[in-house]
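User: Sequence for PGG domain-containing protein below. Tokens please.
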Amino acid sequence: MESPQNKLFEAAAKGCVISLQQLLIDDPLILDRVIINHYSETPLHVAAMLGHIDFVNEIIHMKPQLTNELNSQLSSPLHLASAKGHVDVVRALLAVDHHTCLACDSNGLTPLHLAAIKGRDEVMELLLQAQPDAARLTSYGDGTILHLCVKNHQLEALKRLLTAVSEPEFVNSSDADGNTVLHLAVGDKQVETTKLLLNVAALEVNALNHEGMTAMDVLIRSRRDVRDSEITESLEQAGGTRAALEVNPLNHEGITAMDVLIPSRRDVRDSEITESLEQAGGTRAAIETNTNTAAGDGLPIQVNDWLDEKKNALMLVATLNATMAFQIGVSPPGGVWQDDNFLINSHGHMVDPNGNTNISQPVNSTNDVVLFPHQAGCPVLERNAPFIYMLFYISNTIGFFFSVGIIFMLMSGFHSKNRYFVLIMTVVACIAISATASTYFSAVIGLTALRTKELKVEKFAVFAWCGLTVLVIIFQAVRFFVKPSRRPLQE
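Assistant: Structure tokens for PGG domain-containing protein:
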């Protein structure tokens, strides 16, 4: 049999006032039981969310304190009605208690925030009339309600809010990253929103975010778009400028042709273009701004980006190489002997491969003579191909310790901003990789040497790899020493 509480929620979902009245006649305390029981929401939540105004009026008449009850997401009935845009329900709930406008849900959003995000203009008007201060409340990390309007592309809601509240501290408020609504609108290429904001007298056009960038800086550093020219024109007409930028007689962004080339996508034509620019006296612009240099090291952002990418690549290669070297070092190819086998000397005594006769294992007969003596735990490859195993062991040790050395040096940060340090680490990485390759070739040759004398493929691969390694090292030397001026690096 269905419980009275379930019938109550069904009546709320249908908006049936007659069923509610009958349930109250049968059990006058049924609404009180809903309040004290652990339900995720009340019947008023359900009716408010679905817009059943008659049911809402009836239930708040019988039990007005239900308007302050919160569901599992800390949302009041006013939150749900505002988000859905049920104007009559919002009006009825505000008539009971207009202070619920200031309540925040689990996401830090008030009913006004939800109405703005969803673009419920009429609901916003009612909420602002009931509690104008609700517009000044901030959400968790997302800034003010103005930021929410821009992020959710609610232009009409933004107009209504700027009309209702236009104080400078409200219009120029920032989010967790220090961005004002103008920063967000420009970065998202919202042309109409940008024009609307620039017409607000209290707006600071050149406000700085936490990265020291104005709205113009955000636009210039953002992805290129067909709307850029229109936004740029609007910003310039409103007095928008870049942050602390000394513009040379170059272009309106203070960037020379050399500046355009250096951070651009790498191309085989770069060297020819660079040479032509240098012959014509082309140089980089002397841009003195905190948006073009990395804090604390004085290097251009392009240089630091390149160095960081190079160091990350070296760290990844060294880690993988060290892992492989360690694994193959403790598990050599061919495995290890699982038992002890010894020789019988001319006196009939058992001796180990080192000539020791202190062996406790008895000799039963001359059948105990062993042709391949070995000890448990020793590599099989060492007994079968000693010279190849020595090459394998030396190569693997070099690869492991060089890789560990790269990891240690990069983690220590020793001269990490020096291009010669990066060169040395790159050469060391090449040696470590070559040692790992030598380890592989030694292992393959050792495993196949007993089966065949024809190792043409392995020999060709060894010579090819050695040649490739030499070419890479020569290329790095030319790249860093012969033509250092053509790289965006500083010592």
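The CA atoms of residues 75 and 437 lie 62 Å apart.
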